[in-house]
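Reopening this one. Same input as before:
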Amino acid sequence: MTTLAQFITSATNEIASEWEEFARKYLPAASSINLQARRDHVVGMLQRIAQDLDTPQTKREQSDKSKGMDDGLVTSATAANAHGTDRAAHGFTPTEVIAEFRALRASVLRLWSEAQGEFSRANLTDVMRFNEAIDQLLAESMSRYALDVENSKDLFLGVLGHDLRNPLGAIMMSASLMMTQEGPEWSHHTTASRILNAGTRMDQLIGDLVDFTRSKLGAGIPISRTTCDLEQVARQTVEEIRAFHPKCVVRFDASGDLRGDWDGGRIGQALSNLLGNAFQHGAPSAPIEVGVRGQADDVVVTVRNLGKRIPHERLSDIFDPFKQVEPAGPKSRDARSFGLGLYIVRAIVTAHEGTIGVDSTELATTFTVRLPRSAR
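Same output, byte for byte:
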């Protein structure tokens, strides 16, 4: 009597041919690839299944496999991972990838049952272990597929954000030049000013997008440390938020030694995002309190605003990308952003080897940033 492992080894080419025919007939994305050249993925996975079936397995090992604890690493060079990468690169949908494994499972079991004269309890065990093995390969392949799709999306967004900056810069420079040359009495001065303000806002959004994709792709937020005074950085940022939001009231307080080695531009960017978040979600006309306090080894920055309490269950994901707190007022509903501000703040603080936390009560919400004076 032929075991399932023996049958898979002897009928590998026949099984792979059935898979190829299924993909060509039922999967639209398969029309863009050379299926014959990709039989090695299926052959490799079949070989792994046969090897798995021939390897003794304890109950503990079976339990670990069923929980995904025995899956191969997403970075490993396996046939399942190669298959997932190939499918992501050629535009297969998750449904199509899963359909391939369903068809492969059906082909193996049907062809084996046709070749067998009778079945025993040992055959039933083979079928159970075969299902476990192919489910494991499906999980590995889909994990790699999802990772590659996510990386491709992030890379596309990063390139898009980078390439948008050149034409946007030309628009902003032209508007600024016209305003400077024509003077405030120019009949189109107000229109040019609106173009410049809109361009500035777009540049901020593009900057957020570029920083987000850079950090998602593993590069992190780049910083260039120089000796700077955090009080000066903070005061400049406060003045910028006041100019951008004339109705925004900010109370600023600084104390202690505030000098250290930081990337002043990035720290200003993080503080600007915190202030913008406080203005957007804070109570109307309520002041925002900014404190910068020097300590022995680090500097503590706090941004506090009155307003609606952030639900406790939301605090755990408030720094995640594309997550925003529920609107607290008209200015929140009118605000336009990607929901990347706090994510980028955390990335900048992390790049400086610092920490950030948030505390929210019925009265106020406070963000606290701790920045070591120098790199450890």
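So the earlier flakiness isn't reproducible anymore. For the record, The longest strand covers residues 298-306.
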